[in-house]
Amino acid sequence: MQFRLPALRLPPFFRGGLVSPFKLRKLGILGMNARNVRYIARYNDRDKYPIVDDKLNTKRAARRYRIPVPDLIAAFDTQPTRTRIMQVIGPLQQFVIKPARGSGGKGILVIVGRDGEDYVKPSGNKVTALDIQRHVSNIHSGLYSLGGKPDRCMVEALVDFDPVFDKYSFEGVPDIRVIVFRGFPVMAMLRCSTHDSDGKANLHQGAVGVGIDLATGKASHAVQRGVRVDTHPDTKMPFADLEVPGWTELVKLAASCYEMTGLGYLGCDIVLDRKRGPLLLEANARPGLAIQIANGIGLRTRLEHIESLDMEHLEKNVEERVAYSMDYFAARTTL
Amino acid sequence: MSPRAQVYILAALLTLLGASLTIYKHFALGFPLLPGEYRTVWTIEAKVRFNADGGPVKAALTLPRAQRNMEVLGETFSSSGYGFNIVHEDDEHRAVWSRRQASGVQSLFYQLDVHQTPGAALEQSLDLSTEVVKPMLGAREQEAVRQAIYSLVEAGRARSSDVSTFTSELLLALADTRNQDRNLIFGYYKDRSFVDVALVVLAAADIPAHRIRGLYLEDDRRRLDPEDLLEIYDGKRWVVFEPTSGTPGVPKNFFIWQRGGKSLLDVEGGRNSGVTFSVISNDVPARDVAMLSTSKEKEALVDFSIYSLPIEQQSIFKLILLVPVGALVVVLLRVFVGLRTSGTFMPVLLAIAFIETQLLTGLSIFVLILILGLWVRFYLSRLNLLLVARIAAVVITVVILMGAISVVSYKLGIEQALTVTFFPMIILAWTIERMSILWEEDGPYEVVIQAGGSLLVAVLAWWVMTNRYIEHWTFNFPELLLVLLGLVMIIGNYTGYRLGELARFRQLVR
């Protein structure tokens, strides 16, 4: 528990003024209202939400569609006893505890090592077994789920992160978000945690958003707190050298989530495992709009292009769709 | 049909329905569109007095009929010890008081509330006798009077073109004290009133005429005697004249009590009877007048509405009907501005509490409870309690805090703080819990942002909800909720940018 006083900083809203909505429109920027009304409400059927809103369901569906995911060690359906938790996590060195229905990365506890009786978080802070039990109990009571509904708790194997991003991430793990619209990947970004973001990959908490060129997997643009950056603020590594290995495989994985979930407008969060390659961390039926800032371009024109495609295009298989997107949505400039 | 078109059509229908119901209620039922409109309601009291002889008594008072420009809102009779009845005979309504035995001075009261509405004073449909009874003027000593009457009639006829102008001329001549004929006539009819004499002369001129009894409505008048107007038949219709000035038409503020027909008051078994009137004017909220005047006809719109509920429930509904307005404020700020709040409609609940507590008191109490609650919650989180138990503990803490705030502030003489009870406790406890999670996960900055956003929305919602026009409209025209519903549906279709996004996507433009 930390007591930190609020930093004296003007909210971003007040810095730098406003731009005209006509300019945003001209640039094809997608706004929250348009996203909700024109894409989520229209292309995402309600009955498909449980597949993505509950990570245990996502895991099950992914197994059926042969989409690689991090291994599930255990899932607690009911409030577990102290002995059951200890049975599961006792022998483990590294693991992740997360709520099945959490959103926005809330309630995720990552343990990277042991120090005697204590457990070590990525930041180096230690937590006790009691803290972990309390966390599990909170998850079950619905603290992190939408509307406070009782939730399930899952223990997942810690991803053995590919070290390619080590230089671009501080105290945390980067993940790749790909927006998939009607099966076509339309935009991608890499989220790198910073010292500012406290190891978290949330852009509004200070993580760096790196726009990734769909065609090559190379960085095309990078932004931290709305300001354009060329190097990682903590590691000072230039983003121009950044390239995601096995990019085509990763984009294919994201595109195949369309078949898996049946959702027309989808955000796929993917991490790179050292041995297994890209793994689907979670899918999101209401992906945010920060990806536009990370890429420095609007999403709307791309979505409208996919909307204008005829049936012949929409019946393509994953490989064809990915090839089409990589060709059509290639970035004009890279870093 | 696309969902978007459906929304627009449905919203248009709802708006049209709500607006037309409102317009109907305003124009047809007289509900005021603006708050604070007052109407003058006249309370007229008729006092019947007589000396009872000791035997059976029966008093009959002619009652006013419904009139086009006067709306009767209610009537009361007070007659202790008397049997009471209203009889209808020949188009006339009469109140009849009766008693087996009565002696001494008796007073009977009849009171009615009247509201003046714009419109013609008299309906013409009244079926009155146009028969003329010629005055008996045969004897020799009355020859002079008869001469005078006919001379007046002749003079008037010479100076007029029709029945109406003739009557005016005649009345003017009768009022002129320099006229010899007139003085002769009034000398003969010493004990008769002006209108009595005018009726005699009009009968001599073969013009059907009768008296109208009524009252001039002036505030705070007591012991008024009824005043008379003349009504003559010009061959096609009845025309009213003010007798002393000779001008046609019913004077403004004249309340017609009795038109033609029998006597005003009949008393059997008593002597020295008489009727006096008193008039008071009250300024009554226009809505009450509308309610009273429609309650008799049982307008479905009024009858099946909130007004049919008991007063206590009405006052609760007054508050409930404001909730949609608060919700609209939340929708506007979310869709057009993009303000982040903790809990979507929590600010509305806060605003309702603010209505009860007053803004500044409410704000300070809320912030105080939030800070104290967060502090307690941080301690509780170290005790490893289950979530529900922990929130229950926070609820109990909040209740204790509220009690403590009440007692301490009461002892200090700050009575306003007693309104702390209007805050929804469970909501406060959940807010505290959510804020503390937010603090742990996203840091205190986010807590300040969300709490500030919630309070800002709550204050705005409070400001709109306490607007006297909004209050008036939501309560008196609940059908405007349909318009609100249509509006919310249209807003729900807005796909443009939020104000916050104009700042958020700023660097994309450069």
From TrEMBL, chain A:
Transmembrane segments: none annotated. Pfam families: ATPgrasp_ST. GO terms for biological process: SOS response. The keyword Manganese applies. Keywords: ATP-binding, Manganese, Nucleotide-binding. The keyword Cell membrane does not apply. This is Alpha-L-glutamate ligase-like protein. It comes from Microbulbifer pacificus.
Automatic annotation (TrEMBL), chain B:
Keywords: Membrane, Transmembrane, Transmembrane helix. The chain crosses the membrane at residues 6-24, 316-337, 349-375, 387-408, 414-432, 444-465, 477-497. It holds the Pfam family Transglut_i_TM. Residues 263-508 form the 7 transmembrane helices usually fused to an inactive transglutaminase domain. Residues 24-185 form the Inactive transglutaminase fused to 7 transmembrane helices domain. InterPro entries: 7TM_transglut (IPR025840), Transglut_i_TM (IPR025838). This is Inactive transglutaminase family protein. It comes from Microbulbifer pacificus.
